[in-house]
Amino acid sequence: MEAFVQSMMEKFGPSGIALLMFLENIFPPIPSELIMPLAGYLSTRGDMGVLVVICAGSVGSLLGTLPWYYLGRRLGHEGVRRLAERHGRWLTMRPTDVDAATDKFKRHGNLSVLVGRLIPTVRTLISVPAGVARMPLGTFLIFSTIGTVAWTASLTLAGYLLGQAYSVVSDYVDPISTAVLIILVAVYLYRVWAFKEVQD
């Protein structure tokens, strides 16, 4: 995995990191918890500064929220519930999950977007009820940006600080990151396999 992230950074620069983070929001099994620490770690070895890495990751992540936001805005609550009924197994999302997310958004409003961007898995789904509620796009982007930059910066800086001890950890980073990716994909596949629809 380290080699893949490094290859994306070398070939495409900041755009490569932005693309990875965009895809992370579209397809959650690609984890930001792996991408950004590795990008921060690798920034200590190359020409790309850590601030550039944070900005690129944040921009890609924000762009990745928009398809989910507009999906919620276009389909509305009932439309998203129907989507969950038809394709919930692959999304690992039930109609009751849609109801719960919408209820939480109604209770906490703007703050739920900001906080939601700091919570794994919720980071992606929080955009849907924001769209369903027709939260103004500008407001959505402001609160999403605050949460996204905080999340991306913390992960990047963790990897950057790790990179300062490169001589100690260099032999372990790639095997560990690959193992984490395999585990995350396995968890997703298990959730698909174990998924049970809940009838209302």
What does the model show?
The chain has 200 residues and is mainly α. The chain has 10 helices and no strands. The chain has one domain.
What number is the mean pLDDT? 80
Radius of gyration: 18 Å
What is the terminal-to-terminal distance?
42 Å
Low-confidence runs of at least 5 consecutive residues: none
Number of helices: 10
Shape: globular
Query: Structural class of the helix and strand makeup?
Result: mainly alpha
- The share of residues in extended strands comes to under 5%
Number of domains: 1
Order of helices and strands: HHHHHHHHHH
Total beta-strand segments = 0
Share of helix among residues?
A: over 70%
* Major sheet characteristics: none
Describe the SSE topology:
Layout: H1 2-12, H2 14-26, H3 32-43, H4 50-91, H5 95-108, H6 110-116, H7 122-125, H8 127-132, H9 137-163, H10 166-194
Helix pairs in contact: 1-2, 1-3, 2-3, 2-4, 3-4, 3-9, 4-5, 4-9, 6-9
Sum up the structure in keywords.
82% helix; 200 residues; mainly alpha
Could you provide a short overview of the structure?
The protein has 200 residues and is mostly helical. The chain has one domain (2-194). The chain is built from ten helices and no strands.
